[in-house]
Design a protein that fits this description.
By secondary structure, the chain is mostly helical. Helices cover 59% and strands 1% of the residues. Helix 4 packs across helix 12 and helix 9 packs across helix 11.
Amino acid sequence: MRKIGQLAGWLGCLPLVGVLLVLPGNGAVQRLVGGGHPGVPFYLLAVVLALPVGVATMVAAFLLDWLIAGWRRSSLAALSRASASVRLDILSYAVSILPRQWLGYALSIGLLYVVDLGVLQPRNVSLMHLLPAWGLQVACLVLFQSFISYWMHRLEHAVPALWALHQFHHSADHMSILTTDRQTSLTRAVEQIVMLFFLALFTDPTAHEPGVGSPLFMLVVAYSAYRIFMGINHYLCHSNLTTDYGWFGRWLIVSPRMHRLHHAAEPRFHDKNFTFDLVIWDRLFGTYANCDVSALASVPIGLDNNPFNSPGITGLARDYFVMPYVVLWRAVRAGPSAWLPKPLAGSARPAPQSRFAS
C-alpha cells in the first residue's frame, strides 16, 4: 500500500510539473505543449492552468516533501500540529498572498508604495543588449541574480539594522515549507529597494530564444527545468528534509541540509550558507559549511534569544504586526553604527572540523 500511495503521489505531481513548464512565460515551451494538437494532456493542463505558478510550485513541494520525508516529518504534518512557530509561518504566508495593496503599503511604512511608483527603478541601464545570444543572456542572468541574492542575504546578517528585520525569518524554531515566506512586508520592501538597481543591469533575456526544432532548443528546456527545480527546491530547503544531494549539493545546488544548518540557533551558523541556489558563492567567499546527518540532528533551529513565537491569538498578532518594528527600533537606536557591517561571527569561531566542514 505504501508503494501504491507513493506512486499515486508522483503521478499527482505530473500535472503540476506541466503547469510549471507552461507558466514561466516561455513561449516556445507553450507551443511545444499546445502545438495546435489538443488532446487529453492538453486539456488536463488547461484545467490546472488556473493555479498561479507560485501556488503550483508550493503544492508540488508539499507533495514531494511528504513522499520523501514521510508523514511524521512532513510540512503537512507540521501544519496539522501548528505550533506557535508554524502558526506565525501561516499568518506570514496568508498576508503575503492577500490582495492587500494598501495593507502592504502600511506595513512597509510606505516603502512598497515607493517601489510600486517606479521612481527608484533605473531606466535603460540593462547590459543585456551587449550579449548577442539567448543562451549567453540566460547564463549571465542566472549567475548575476544568484550573486546579488547571495550578497543581499549576507548584508542582512552583517548589518545590524538589516539583521533586525531578517531575524523574523530566522525566528522559526520548527521548519516547514511555509517558513520560506516567513517575511514581513517591511523586509520585502527594503530588499527590493536595495536590489532594484543591480537587478536592472541584467533584465530578462532580450534576444530571440531558439525555436522548437532548433538544435539549441534544449537550452530552453534546460532553463525551464532549472527554474522549476529551483522554485521547488527553495521550498524544500525550508522543510524537515536533511539530504545534502551528495556531490551535486556540495558543489552546485544548495541542499536542504545546507540551508537547515544556516537556520541553526547558534549565531556562528547564521553566518554560513547564504546562497539560495548556487553553492559557488559560499565556496568562493568562504562561507560554506556542511555536516553529517547525525550532527544536524542535535542542532536546534531558531534564535538563542527569540522575541517571536508567542502563544495564543494575541501573541500571534503581536509577533507579526508589532514585534518586528520593536526589534528594528531597538537596533536603529544605536545610531549610524546600526547601518555599518560587522565581521561575520562564523569567521571568528570556526566550526569543529570533526563534525562540521567549512
